[in-house]
Amino acid sequence: MAIERIVIVGGGTAGWMTAAALSRMKAGHRKLEIVLVESEQIGTVGVGEATIPPFVDFNRLLEIDEAEMLAAVQGTFKVGIQFENWGRIGQSYLHPFGTYGYEIDGVSFHHVWHRLKQAGDPRPIQAFNLETMAAHFGKFLRTPDYESDHLPPMNYAYHIDATRYARFLRSYAEARGVVRREGRVADVALDGESGHVASITMDDGEVMPGDFFVDCSGFRGLLIEQALKTGYEDWSHYLPCNRAVALPCEREDGSPPALFTRATAHSAGWQWRVPLQHRNGNGHVYCSEFMGDDEAHAILVANLAGKPGADPNFLRFVTGRRKKFWNRNVVALGLAAGFMEPLESTSIHLVNTGINKLVSILSLDGVTQEQEDAFNRLTAKEYLRIRDFLVLHYSATARDDSPFWNHVRTMDVPDTLKEKIALFRSNGQIFREDDELFIETSWASVMMGQGIQPNGHNVMADALPLDQLRGEIDGIERSIRYLVEHMPSHADYLSKYCKAE
Ligand code: FAD
């Protein structure tokens, strides 16, 4: 059946990102109707504030003016995530965007660095990453603002107020013909023959038919789960945290916003700090088996950089994913599709890649089994690789100071992760599989940051003379220092480029 009417259920970050992206289809298909249904009474989760670099491309593809958007969402720039107390209490490392150095004669930089380290070079690998050094000195300059033929461009993402971002995209989508309908969905009707969703019924009785539905209704999964009974793959045995309490605060010390999200491990979970222009977003993710709500709240309040700016928002979740992300004529995106912890800011990213796949695969001639299968297969691989990366943060720890850390340190981990760790330990090898999101630098930074050190390096790193290698890495270090020295401070840059009104 041809698709003439798409209904998006839910107006959180996922719903409005989808609406904004699909609205561009209307330019070539004027008769296509796109309707978004949301309920102000139900509201949104609205704590998704930290993003990763592909999100910059998402906004670019929509031809959104970056400075205007950042001003509207109180945004700041982000070049990585700082992990505190994960491998051990008192230990800290940055997982940077971008790469350590660059490939030398086809060999990844960290192998070359390891060889030089063995030969007595004392410099930490972080000295060869532009984003780490920029974060360290609080300096920032967007990529198009400078040119360097020696180094890859600065990789960055944003910290955003997700509620404001959804509002921003709503204006964008409505201006391009998306129709918003306020109200609560009370019922979902299935077609008796195909089992497809035929229509939704609003609480005022209005029946809204659709040919294709995008379920962005959040954890409840109104269409994908409640109507279609798709089923959920529970990953609590690998990612046991199942609660969060969120609490924004003013940045009272007047300090400039950091260029990174901070993830500080506590005794039964961890706390995020996301610096926006006007405030910090904070939250404590924890495991209810090991900590109660009151204690989690008290730990969060005790570790804020200012007075709480709102009432605490308690959230419950089960980590995992839907057994199918695309089922019949419904695609689930955002929290309706699944949830892994916000440790590496991957949720909004998965909305983004879900939209990319949807617009590539969807044909307005109608849905087919092949489309459904391809979408599900590709998305499942993506979730799996991200899951392994998140599990690594918990399993690669020496912490034994609480029952929670004893549990995650000794839990069984997926075989795919076991293999990755074993290969890295033996000679620093990291294979990026299935076009996975996290690159070698990401894996290396977390493994080394949490105490997994390679015993050797790629034999090809021994092929070049040491002096030549030293010359190469000296050049990288010098270029990074020079660039960082000549960048403005992050705070100055924000106030000139995209200061919020
Ligand atoms: P929601 O925000 O829950 O929106 C659901 C929508 O559906 C709402 O508009 C609601 O009104 C509507 N709805 C529901 N039921 C009905 C109904 N019956 N009728 C009508 N409308 C209905 N992601 C990141 O990328 N970075 C982060 O730092 C990050 N931090 C997070 C921290 C926590 C603790 C949590 C839980 C999530 C975090 N996320 C993060 C994830 C991020 O918040 C979500 O992925 C993102 O906001 C998308 O949410 P959503 O739109 O799917 O769902």
Automatic annotation (TrEMBL):
The active site is at residue 78. 7-chloro-L-tryptophan binds at residue 78. InterPro entries: FAD/NAD-bd_sf, Flavin-dep_Halogenase_NPB, Flavin_halogenase, Trp_halogen. L-tryptophan binds at residue 344. The keyword Transcription does not apply. GO terms for molecular function: monooxygenase activity; nucleotide binding. Keywords: FAD, Flavoprotein, Nucleotide-binding. FAD binds at residues 11-14, 185, 335, 348. It holds the Pfam family Trp_halogenase. Transmembrane segments: none annotated. Signal peptide: none annotated. This is Tryptophan 7-halogenase. It comes from Aurantiacibacter xanthus.
